[in-house]
Amino acid sequence: MKFSGKRDSEDGTVSGSALFGRHPLTEPLSDVGDVQFFDTTLRDGEQAPGVSLSPDEKAHIAGLLDDANVDVIEAGSACTGPGERKTISRVADLDLDATVTSFCRGIKNDVDLALDCGVDGVDIVVPASDRHVVDKVGTSREENVQDTVELVEYAKEHGLWVEVIGEDGSRADLDYLEELLGAAMDAGADRICWADTVGHATPDGAVEAVSRLSELGPVSTHTHDDLGLAVMNALVSVAAGADMVHGTINGIGERAGNVALEEVAIALDHGYGVETMDLTKAYELGELVANATGMPLPPNKAVVGANAFTHESGIHTDGTLKDDAMYEPYPPEKVGRERRLALGKHAGRAGVEAALEERNFDVTDEELGEIVQRVKEIGDRGRRVTDADLITIAEEVQGAEHDRRVELLDLTTVAGGGTPTASVRLSVDGEERKEAEVGSGPVDAALNAIQSALGHAADTHLESYHVDAITGGTDAVVTVEVEMSRGDRTVAVTASDSDITRASVHAMVDAIDRLIADDSEHVIADD
């Protein structure tokens, strides 16, 4: 048989030993009770290549994790150096509800350094597989157990919460792993952790290991995504007795990354009614971590990706407009999101009409048909139909003229020598304004100059910025797409030019113009 399970009824439920609760070593996930989260974004997540978080960024992320009711926050690894210890101390001083820990190797000095940082606890990683015990550390199994016991006793004597992690646990001899972590519990450790350090484990291996370790005391699970099984391995670990899941926001981490906490949280909540973190903070956390680490969110990522609640297909859009749940497993508000209707070659009349209504356009059936046709033509050329595109099309079809309130008259930028500088000359409600500013680059300087010229009355924010080269060579034409917001309104605009700075500024100015178009008040300069 291709499938070992047996269908029991017409509703498609399946019996067999493969599903949660049916395996003899697991219980149904809906019956597991309390599951806690251990966030290692600030330590394991920061070990992703090219990622380095500043003290301000770590403190900001830690504060939001605490707001989201994450139980344990690993602030870093005190042995890294003075700068890291200063950052860990800053997080420890935030007076969070969460338990704040430092990662420690199996070395007494690492525990001392963690104590100096004022943390609540330590996560002590000790070798578990022979590859690590013998080849990496150069010790014996017996000495490794004894060293672990002594280190746990030392940490507990100093009032620390202690978790012991068996490194490379998924490739360890299970009998030895049980002996090692059992000795740690006997020495006073608060909990032990099964670690799939290199993303080696399959779900059946996770079940076997965690079910045995859970007999020793409270057990955590630490999974990586090298086989694309991180979420599955975390879930089966919980079913097998783990009551804490290690992970990172967005799944960032070494190689293919850690398990994404927001994905485990929604799977447990939506699938089994098990609450973990405050899911309404998931998107805010995802955006914060993506921006701080410079690792943008893939559009198709579960929970926090741009496309997770975006509908373009005419069939899907029409269905969603009739019933929010038609093509979504759970409402976007559950994870701090909003639903979006995207326009492109797959757009239908219902979706285009809804998008026009959002932008206060009242069109006839004939006008709607013409607008839909033009939207599809843009989509057929491989372009995304932005808010500005739709508004321009609608105005042209209705014969309406758009009275610009903000227009770029002149732009000058200086870069390459010293501090990047930009000066702009704008027409704002018929009034000419000039400003010059500096920035991290010419585009940043230009945006700063635009915002200075407009003043706080405009109150616009750049949400996203994307560049694509659409021709080859050194004189390539680039298309810049920006998404800007003002209050609860957001617009996306594209502009093309051989000069990336000029394309960027034109797109930003057009977006700002659209955002303030319906504002009856004059845009007053700060001075």
TrEMBL record:
Entries under InterPro entries matching the protein: 2-isopropylmalate_synth_dimer, AIPM/Hcit_synth_CS, Aldolase_TIM, LeuA/HCS_post-cat, LeuA_allosteric_dom_sf, PYR_CT
Region described as Disordered: spans on this chain: 1-20
SUPFAM superfamilies: 2-isopropylmalate synthase LeuA, allosteric (dimerisation) domain (SSF110921), Aldolase (SSF51569)
Gene3D superfamilies: 1.10.238.260, 3.30.160.270, Aldolase class I (3.20.20.70)
A GO MF label: 2-isopropylmalate synthase activity
Biased composition (Basic and acidic residues): 1-10
BP terms from Gene Ontology: L-leucine biosynthetic process
Keywords, in A-Z order: Amino-acid biosynthesis, Branched-chain amino acid biosynthesis, Transferase
Domain (Pyruvate carboxyltransferase) ranges: 35-283
Protein family: Belongs to the alpha-IPM synthase/homocitrate synthase family.
The name this protein goes by in its record: D-citramalate synthase
Taxonomic source organism: Halomicrobium zhouii
